[in-house]
Amino acid sequence: MVEKADILNTLHSVVKPHVQQDVGISGIVVRPDGSGGFKVGFALEVPASEAAHMEPMRQQCEAAVRRLPGVTQVTAVLTAQRVAGAAPPPPAPARPAEYNSQGLPFVNHVIAVASGKGGVGKSTVTANLAVALAKQGLRVGLLDADIYGPSMPMMFGLSGQPEIADEKLVPPLAHGVKVMSIGLLVGEEQAVVWRGAMVTKALRQMLAGVRWGSKESPLDVLLVDMPPGTGDIHLTLAQAVPLSGAVIVSTPQDVAVLDAVRCLAMFRKVSVPILGMVENMSGFTDATGVVHDIFGKGGAEKAAKEHDAPYLGAVPIAPELRVASDTGTPLSASQPDHAASRAFSDMAARLAASLSLKQAA
Ligand code: ADP
Description:
The chain is built from 14 helices and 15 strands. The protein is of the alpha/beta class. An 8-stranded mixed beta sheet has the order 8-9-5-10-4-11-12-15, sandwiched between helices. Strands 1-2-3 form a 3-stranded mixed beta sheet, covered by helices on one side. Strands 6-7 form a two-stranded antiparallel ribbon. Mean pLDDT is 84; it is low at 83-102. The structure holds adenosine-5'-diphosphate (ADP).
């Protein structure tokens, strides 16, 4: 296997003379070439004003990576996204189309939604964010990879085995979102006892064995609800498909934020860009309009700033969110005007903008 870290080191040595802060490296993908070697793809983000002069550097980068043992093909694309001298922008998901289609057919962006610890509302955020993205006119899928506690069947009111067409599972459409969950395949209790290799295999199957999109109707975005923490499944996902990035959910408490930062570091280590942090359970507004900061406030935003990651917004504590999830209709679908739903809608808009996704007018 060709290691992404080796590719990154090689690229840094080529890019250095070109003023490193003006050249961003993103979207490194490594795929088997079918005959024992590996194809590598990556994007070089350069300032628009410099793009015309950067072609020789692009070629040098390709040549340098091609010299790594095991690499047989290299595709580097130049993307004119940076503003000269500016801090790095949120990573753009520019990738050679060839790699996207090899990873997951007819899915434009795969986004992992993760958290450092359980119970912070990661699944609630994933479900509502998916509905909010769909409401903005995007074609959205949601893969419940939280093998140890699949909750999407309940949140979306789904039961029964999914249909199969042309040897692929057809994800049922609920509240505008195509949903697939291990809980639909084996029952929510059974999934919990799965371990190690079986989990990895199940995840691969749910990615490649599901008809997420078609040529006529590709998915704009597939959200993957990850298990909490930083385990094997995260690495499997990062290796199995080219991820456009990760969204990290935290509550405002220090301990939760600390774990969220660990999670952020893990994704960065495997070259997955952080698309944003979300602060959930951020304050409770009582009947008189007074806000109580039960778990504190602003911890995730502060951490995002400190770690140079975008901040997507805060979701208040709202009992209605839990009730909606427990009854099979995410709040963003049943009460789109609720303050929490509006927070998800704003987040969805930010996320879509950072991926340059077109939204319906
Ligand atoms: P995780 O996926 O991180 O384990 P869940 O999404 O399952 O967390 O949420 C844990 C519990 O907290 C659920 O009962 C959920 O309904 C509730 N919950 C999540 N976010 C909120 C919120 N903002 N306000 C009130 N309850 C919430």
